[in-house]
Amino acid sequence: MSRRANGEGSLRYDEKTNRWIATITVNKKRKAFYGKTRQEVIDKRELFKYSGCKSTKSIILKEAIKKVINYKFNEHKIGENTYYTNKCTLKTISKYPLADKNIENISISDLKSFLEDISKYSSSTIKKIYSELNYGFDYAVENKIISNNLLKNSITITKPKTTKKNEKVVALEYDEQKKFINTLNENPHKYQEIWLLSMYTGCRIGEIMALNKNNIDFSKRQIKIDRTVTRNKNGKEKIGDIPKNMQSIRYIPITNRVYIILKKMIKVANSNSELLISDENGNFISPKAPYSALKRYIKKYKIAPKCTLHMLRHTYATRLFENHVPPKIVQHLLGHKSIQTTLDTYTDVLKKYEEKYIEKLDEIENKLNEVEDLDITVLRTKELNKIKDIVTNSHFTTKQKNLFFDDIISIEKWLELV
Question: What pTM does this model have?
Fold first, then answer.
């Protein structure tokens, strides 16, 4: 005797053979799938449905992804830094058994399990992994290894959300920033101009280390940010090329304090190098050096619980928000492509000052209400005085006039209570 699974039509359990059976109609022919568990036969059926299982070709997932990465790089669709980043993402994927599985044998449950596992990573890492998976499956579809991309054609598969807690933006408090500046005055460091430039311009450390002397325009009082430290295809640091897209270039204003810092940097810069910051041979210095030195300096002089170069950038942005600089301006100064990035990054900072804005709005509304109340009071008084004048100059008897005046006095007393 056999029974059909509840409400699932072509899925049933066979008690004679103690196994589940799933069926599907293909080209008017019925195909059956067998398994010990209900989920096993569902996966087999779905795999057949989406991959077709007719191709004699085969490729493991990580090889499919690798082929796409290499193709894009060789066809100049991506640069060296993106190529290196994509290879790092593939390395992460390769840690999981799914990467070594033939792509035509990967089931929906395999993908679900993998996607659940990677939810421990940050949102940006998950986005990169999901993107590379998509490319791998697209490659297999294009080469007729499978007929459909499971990531795109299965309603039960979606990009996972991170379970990793977002680290809050940390900036130096005002007192910590002041202590940092005073400590540098008393205990100078060879990288202090780099640190201060980051704190007073909000530039990324890679952008600072890639600055040329001709990026500094003292007459216009601005710094041109058009390059950053990046990586070649092997992961070695280098200064990137100037972008063709003008939107990727921004200008940072030179304040009086930044003016003094830059003048000092120009004065000690290597005359044999175009770079603002270089070693004795004119070569660029890795951002790792000032980064590590800052952490040691902060700890040595007990300036703050911790501080990184990125925190100096956050300190710059936080001081801007504290002084009511609009988010759109902050976005431009920080070089964020989207205003949403700025708002998301500094959510807690903005919330902190949102309360102050609300207090100010309350103050403004109260003042407006005071003005409104004053205007109404003045208006009422004028109108009542007009009535008094009319009654005084009327032909009413004295008794009638007094009755009117009594009524007006009653009205005035009542209005005072409103």
Answer: 0.67
